[in-house]
Amino acid sequence: MRSSSRHGTSTIAEAALRDAAPAVLWLEQSDRPQVGQPLTGSVGADLVIIGGGFTGLWAAIQAKEDDPSLHVVVLEAGRIAHQASGRNGGFCSSSLTHGLDNGVSRFGGEMERIEALAAANLAGVEASIERYAIDCDWHVPGQLTVATAPWLVDDLLEGAELARRYGHEVTVLDTEEVRAELNSPTYHAGVWQRSGEALVDPARLGWGLADAARSLGVEIHENSEMVELERSGAAMVVRTTNGRVRAGAVLLATNAFRSPLRRINATVAPVYDYVLATEPLSDEQLASIGWANGQGLADTTNQFHYYRLTEDRRILWGGYDAIYHYGSRIDPSLDQRPATHELLARNFFDTFPQLEGLRFTHRWG
Q1: Among 164, 212, 210, 177, which residue's Cα sits nearest to residue 65?
Q2: Start-end of H helices in the chain
Q3: Residue-wise over 163-194: b if at least 16 C-beta within 10 A, else e?
Q4: What are phi and psi of 86, to 5 degrees?
Q5: From first to last of its 365 residues, what are the pLDDT tens digits of the chain?
Q6: Whole-number Å distance between alpha carbons of 213 and 52
Q7: CB atoms inside a 10 Å sphere around CB 107
Q8: Which domains does the chain have, with CATH numbers?
Q9: CA angle (123 as vertex; 120, 127 as ends), nearest 5
Q10: Are 54 and 213 in contact (CB under 8 A)?
């Protein structure tokens, strides 16, 4: 980012952040479902799933699709999709290896098979959304990756060639062309990958998956944190504060939260990411930047930004810092990090100086 205007940008960023609520944009929607009932008493199940995010909900749906006779119970410690599933930027990529170059460097000759599985996985996500009529603003505009310095252009072009080699539809854009797509003085080149990249409202996807699971007969309990997991003969028993589930199988879908299986904890490092969302853009503000094709955006630096338009024409802007807290600490107090939110705001106005005066309404982690 440019340093000559840092003081002015800081002042603009501070004003834009002044009234931003410490809240998640997606989870603040007025039609958020009412909280579900907690587990009370004892129940039996064929399968109990711990965690009501994407993994847990999709696992419940797939279990019932495979065998409708199964009794499946989902236990969520808080509310459905309240953690990472409902807090992310709403980017859905087919990549299973966090980028093609990363996959090729590690898996070499297996990448063709991995990419085929990745494409099938993304198609399966879309098919589930269509099958259960989930209203989550799913659309596939592709992703525009931009080089924000001249020395980043060669790597960007190498990535485009690699994507083509694996069958992706890719368009390379020079400085003038990329700024015609999205007008920023920081852009030197861009690559628009039209395949394998979707956008979604993640909270609505989570709520829709919960509705779909319930329609198949899945029993979902919110505010039902697992406090103990133990064997009982051939079965497993999950205890919560006010209840217990005895089940033939347990699936742990707890993401970065501590697992009752200690060997899992040693392999997981929770990292905090931070996000801002603006107020809806006016016609004039939107015209000043373009973005007619509505792609998801990312830049190519190691500390990268991701950003996108929402359905109501806000800009969601996140990334850059990745913060680990000693002891793999996760706590609601860590959802806010003023230093990172201020840095994100400064970088936003360096990227889009023509949007000076635009306000941020939400900030979260």
Answers
A1: 212
A2: 6-17, 54-66, 84-87, 100-107, 111-131, 153-165, 175-181, 202-215, 262-265, 283-289, 338-351
A3: beebebebebbeeeebbebbebebbbbbbbbb
A4: -105, 5
A5: 444 455 678 899 999 999 999 999 999 999 999 999 999 999 999 999 999 999 999 999 999 999 999 999 999 999 999 999 999 999 999 999 999 999 999 998 999 999 999 999 999 999 999 999 999 999 999 999 999 999 999 999 999 999 999 999 999 999 999 999 999 999 999 999 999 999 999 999 999 999 999 999 999 999 999 999 999 999 999 999 999 999 999 999 999 998 888 888 889 999 999 999 999 999 999 999 999 999 999 998 878 899 999 999 999 999 988 899 999 999 999 999 999 999 999 999 999 999 999 999 999 99
A6: 11
A7: 14
A8: 6-29+139-199+272-364 (3.30.9.10), 41-88+203-265 (3.50.50.60)
A9: 135
A10: no
* DSSP assignment string, 190-251: EEEE-SSEEE--HHHHHHHHHHHHHHTT-EEESS--EEEEEEETTEEEEEESSEEEEEEEEE
Q: Residue 197 corresponds to which amino acid?
A: E
What are the tokens at 355?
């949007």
Q: Which residues contact 319 (CB under 8 A, 6 or more apart)?
A: 273, 274, 298, 303, 304, 305, 306, 344
Whole-number Å distance between alpha carbons of 335 and 7: 27
Angle (deg, nearest 10), helices 100-107 and 153-165: 70
Q: Hey, what amino acid is at 236?
A: M
Four-CA torsion 336, 339, 340, 341, nearest 10 degrees: 70
Cα(47)–Cα(219) distance, integer angstroms: 11
Instruction: Give me the amino acid identity at 227.
Output: V
- In the DSSP assignment, the letter for residue 185 is T
Contacts of 11 (CB under 8 A, 6+ apart): none
161: its two tokens: 């060639």
What is the chain's length?
Answer: 365
Asked if residues 26 and 87 have their Cβ atoms less than 8 Å apart, the reply is: yes
Structure tokens at 261: 């299986």
Pairing of strands 72-75, 170-173: unpaired
Tell me the Cα Rg of the chain. Answer: 22
